[in-house]
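Dear colleagues,

As part of the handover before I leave the project, I'm documenting each prediction I ran so the next person doesn't have to rerun anything. This entry is a single chain, and its sequence is reproduced below.
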Amino acid sequence: MALFDNSAGTYDNWCQTPLGSFVDRLEKELMMTLADPKRNETVLDLGCGTGIYSLELAKKGLKVTGMDISEEMLKQARKKAIQSGYDLDLISGDFHTLPFEDEVFDLVITNITLEFADDPKRVVSEAMRVLKTGGCFVAGFIGKHSSWGKIYQKKGESDSNSVFSKAVFFTPEDINSLYKYKPDNLLFGLYIDSEEFLNEIQAMELELKRRAFHPIEEAGFMAVKWIKG
């Protein structure tokens, strides 16, 4: 994960741009719709990075544990937590082998991290293991065959220093095979191409129109949920 160490200081910059802010908001809306986080729930943010989702969940009153293998990313997350005044439990670790007992968390969440896992099926299995019965695991993915997926794949192929150089992207069919049973719910979005973006209002109008009739394979972002029975 040295690639993420190298980009930690600038990782959040894109979200400060108009397009990046729009994409971040859209992804969060889909993820939070599925997660339906409730105050005082315990949540594990896998691959928490600079704490984007950890802080979002803390603001909603959840008790947050964030975990990442990149120490530089965690440094940024801790700095943001201090500046924001939120108490986050941020730890270093590998999400292939979680250092928690069975059935500890009400919610496990991860966004665009399984693309970088050596064994994504094991990560999903571990996430489900540490969930309480009735809890949910929510994961976000870049759509492999979308325009966004193609952009990131091209970045990875052309630049060995890019964080996407080791990424493996998923189709809806790939996601269905990540666990012993299919996800309980899937949401698809980000149907607007980056070059089409003018402003957030125009982009959201176009986005909502396309969700009604564009095939799911063209979605730039997929949010999925497994419920532990």
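Residues 33 and 66 are 20 Å apart (CA to CA). The chain has eight helices and seven strands.

All the best with the project,
I.
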